[in-house]
Amino acid sequence: MSTITTADGTEIFYKDWGPKDAQPIVFHHGWPLSSDDWDAQMLFFLSKGFRVVAHDRRGHGRSAQVSDGHDMDHYAADASAVAEHLDLRNSVHIGHSTGGGEVARYVAKFGEPQGRVAKAILVSAVPPLMLKTEANPGGLPIEVFDGIRAGLAANRAQLFVDFPTGPFYGFNRQGAEVSQGVINNWWRQGMMGSAKAHYEGIKAFSETDQTEDLKAITVPTLVLHGEDDQVVPIADSALLSVKLLKNGTLKTYPGYPHGMLTTHAEVINADLLAFITS
User: Fold this and answer.
1) How many Å apart are CA 187 and CA 68, to the nearest integer?
2) What is the mean pLDDT of residues 144-167?
3) 29 is catalytic
């Protein structure tokens, strides 16, 4: 397997496919998954001649199940370590859900200052802040995230069945075309990772205020979000993010779920390609 070791000694697994002289597209996965969640996008962009790179977040997939560092700063630093190791330049960074938060922090703190990033894309992403606070009254109450933590601690295997069977892909909606294979693959990816990383990652994706990250990003940034996202409500994420970005573009999809990268891959891939090549 291809791995790097970060400054704090964490082994991070990554994939690096395609011509090394082609423009890199770097994919950042959501909670509690792995780089495998990007299969449909990586194969698509590989067929278009791009170099495609993705890593497993610490504690997720095939990366080390370390005890510490399950927060957005470490996530971004780990992503930067991969980009520096591979010397990726003129890159497009695409993040889904928690991975969108990782992209925002990486681009603001590392990617732009190092001159490595050409564009960014946030898909069904958690920024600017999911948690309801006095400053963010439209967010979700802490009880929502406490409930996920309780479910994970009590029976992670069952939670990781319920999530993809229900809200993640919109399979709980009337008329939805349910794929058991997609559900099984979500469960497989989740159960590969560390319960501690997943438990502490809930705080990372729900309580990290990324307002300043979004304000700091100057590269062209595409914000994509499903209007029927039951996991990261569009009104509290994408609609706010695009207002904070200096060079942001918003595209929404009526009826699309949180996991639209999988359920509607052909549509999303075409829109990603159009933005990247524009």
Assistant:
1) 23
2) 98
3) no
Question: What pairs with residue 120 in β-bridges?
Answer: 93, 221
Considering the chain, what is the average pLDDT of its residues? Answer: 98
Question: Over the stretch 202-239, which tens digit does the pLDDT of each residue have?
Answer: 999 999 999 999 999 999 999 999 999 999 999 999 99
From 97, 124, 194, 241, the catalytic residue: 97
Q: Among this protein's residues, is 97 annotated catalytic?
A: yes
Which residue has tokens 């909606």? Answer: 173
Q: Choosing from 78, 213, 229, 236, which is the catalytic residue?
A: 229
The confidence band for 1, taking pLDDT boundaries of 50, 70 and 90, is confident
Mean per-residue pLDDT, 3-8: 97
Interatomic CA distance for residues 232 and 99, integer angstroms: 13
Kindly provide the residue ranges of all beta strands, DSSP E only, lying in the chain, ordered along the sequence.
Answer: 3-5, 11-17, 24-28, 51-55, 91-96, 117-123, 221-226, 248-253
Question: What pairing do the DSSP bridges indicate for beta strands 117-123 and 91-96?
Answer: parallel
Which of 28, 29, 225, 258 is flagged as catalytic? 258
Judged by DSSP in three states, 138 sits in coil
Distance CA 245, CA 84 (A): 25
Residue 206 among the catalytic residues? no
Please state which architecture CATH assigns to domain 3-276.
3-Layer(aba) Sandwich (3.40)
Q: What pLDDT, in 10s, does the model give residues 102-147?
A: 999 999 999 999 999 999 999 999 999 999 999 999 999 999 999 9
Provide the residue ranges of all domains of the chain, joining segments of one domain with +: 3-276
> Given the structure tokens 């009526």, which residue do they identify?
254
Q: What is the DSSP string of 42-88?
A: HHHHHHTT-EEEEEPPTTSTTS---SS--SHHHHHHHHHHHHHHTT-
Query: Identity (one letter) of the amino acid at 41?
Result: Q
Q: How do strand 11-17 and strand 3-5 relate by DSSP bridges? A: antiparallel
